[in-house]
Amino acid sequence: MYKDGNYSKGCIALELIEGVRTFSPIENFSENQMLQVLNALAKLQVQFLGITEEKRNKAPHEGLAGLYFHFKDWFLALNNELMAQFPDPEMQKLSAEFKSVLPDMISASDLDKVTVKLGMEKVLVHGDLWSANIMWKDDDKLAKLIDFQVIDLENDPSFTVILFQMIHFGLAGTDLARLFNTCLSPEDRRKNTDTYLKYYYDSLVNYCKEDNNGKVPFTYENVSQN
């Protein structure tokens, strides 16, 4: 797959994981669960801070714009209308709200420019970090973050890392926004966002001390204000 440079080829990796569960989008994460996910996300991002630009460029998508270039406003509107047909009052409410704000939403290409404008280092972005891609053990301990794949090919120095799914290097807030919006109720988001952002950033700083010589890719203000 990687030797001929044809990235349209792919593979499917399956793993049987027993004794785990996921939440639906209308279920709310507890504070303990959210802190576990934020800690895992910070650790994942720091592990890839040292990756070279050459290897970053081998990611399947170039930022959010590369990931969503097919998702034009008309497509998003159509998909939203389909979601509105679900017989759930909360889903219908969210669909109506999305319809009202769609014309004013910032574009993916504009979001990709934020890191440069603010002097932030790009980090590994999962790209699809929501409740269905977070697995829990029966005791509510985090089991796995799923639906992404990173392969380390140690025997091929010309192509050491292969990234799959919606992974790209970009704005840290991308995963945070999707996580908060799919795993927390509006009330919990308004009440706890600052606390969760502070915990995430503190975790990031601590992992940077261990694996990145203490160099942090952006400031807390970069995250909390954007």
From TrEMBL:
Residues 11-210 form the CHK kinase-like domain. Pfam families: DUF1679. It comes from the Eukaryota. InterPro entries: CHK_kinase-like, Dhs-27, Kinase-like_dom_sf, Oxido-Kinase-like_Enzymes. SMART domains: CHK (SM00587). This is CHK domain-containing protein. It comes from Caenorhabditis japonica. The lineage of its organism: Eukaryota, Metazoa, Ecdysozoa, Nematoda, Chromadorea.
